[in-house]
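INFO  loader      accepted 1 record
INFO  loader      residues=572
INFO  predictor   begin
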Amino acid sequence: MAHVVTQACCGDASCVFACPVNAIHPTPDEADFGLAEMLYVDPVSCVDCGACVSACPVGAIVPDTKLLEAQLPFVEVNALFHESGRDHPAQAPVAPILAKDSSRGDLRVAIVGSGPAALYAADELLKRPGVDITVIDRLPTPYGLVRAGVAPDHQHTKAIDELFRQVEDHPGFAYALNVEVGTDLTHDELLEHHHAVVYATGASQDRFLGTPGEQLPGSATATDFVAWYNGHPDHADDVFDLTSERAVIVGNGNVALDVARILATDPARLASTDIADHALAALRGSAVREVVLLGRRGPAEAAFTLPELIGLLGRDDIDVVVEGADLARPVDDVMIGQKLSALRAAAARPRRDGNRRIVFRFATSPVELLGDDHVTGVRVCRNELVTDEGVVRPAPTGDVSTIATGLVLRSIGYRGAPVDGVPFDAQSGTMPNVAGRVIGTPQTYAVGWIKRGPTGFIGTNKTCAQETVEHLIADFNAGLLADPPRDGFDAFVRSRVPGQVDARGWRAIDRAERLEGAQQGRPRRKLTRVGELLGAAATVPERRRRWRDLARRRGVRPAVVHRVEASSSRVD
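INFO  predictor   done
INFO  writer      dumping tokens
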């Protein structure tokens, strides 16, 4: 028997270092680590000790005898990755942690952003004694895309927040939420109170199609749609036209697959998740029965990962159709071959009565969005695939057709946004940096997508953070980080932003949402407006008393109350 990594893999490599026989690859020191779609257990080397199971923060590793039917394809996926053999040492090398020079006193760091990259950076910094960090975010809630980007039907992935809670429990950790750098505070003011500033602001801007009609109502971004169904306060009042039987998504990456899957899922199946109430209500009235994913190139070049495809194909309530693809095309890459094989199997399945369907339409590009005052369709062009110096490129043909739809969502890439006072590369959408050190601005660092662009997965940010933090500590030890001239950052922030939310306030929000969710059989019921969130964060001791009273009145079982309180009150 061997253990198997499944679709939920976050890629943070915790399992790699827990494995006593180095059976999980690629490891962070291997060249393909940043390119792999997930991590893979070698069934031959695995000794079935289970050490990786407890190390995995998202519960992605399962004994092969306990796999669900939808997870069974991952047995072959894990084995195929190791089929050609890998030359590696008996144990994955663990990089030493550079110690902070204690003779230089305490180190104070501000981290701007509160998503996975920020929390991993905080974790790395707090491994050293004598470090205090403040995580700053413009929203009243932390966790970035874990809260507002991961699809609600992927609750296993959101389990990474338990790791983040452990980081929050560290005595050197503080939050300054509901505070926007560039508006409420400047970069220079952060440096007046800290030795260094680490930017973990992600890639929040979408790329444009550049086609006529793109600005019509009914045309939006997949990112906005994701934020809407996940309860992001900026999108709580968004409206998406779900009155057409067909929706079109331009792009076929994992975000596009998430959106297509949510649109094609029976809302009754989403009712037990943390999807925003307004989105669930809208989806219950949705007329959408078909979602078309447009990809410029072929299935071998598709941006979605094999684990996400397997997860989708394992759904018995959604039909998958493949159009415009040569699924018999020979490929050298084993994992791409698996993608084609999975799509061939999906294409051969018979339609099932009553199922919504997702259509993968390859070798197709949008030419124009049609309509006068609202989208009524999208004109598309069939592409011929041309190989140029080993790269497959789409070449438009004269074969043009129209897809009728009232909703077009683009999902074609993301880029970071600039911060006043910090260098920004408009072409790459990142802060120009060398291994995390921002070029041209001393005492300033970057981590995550604002550092490397929108690549990788949640756990990829761990090794990214390790690199940046190592250089920050080296600079501190070398005396390159000037001592901040001012103390009292918390008081300074409160003088600017009276509604600042600290760690206690965030835990109060967390308790309120989880209590509301518990009584509905959901992991949480999200508060989706800033006013609601700030109200939940206020008067923490009084809120706890009212929370317990409300729980008793609504009949929430004491065991549930205790579990929610224990997991979200450790900083109180």
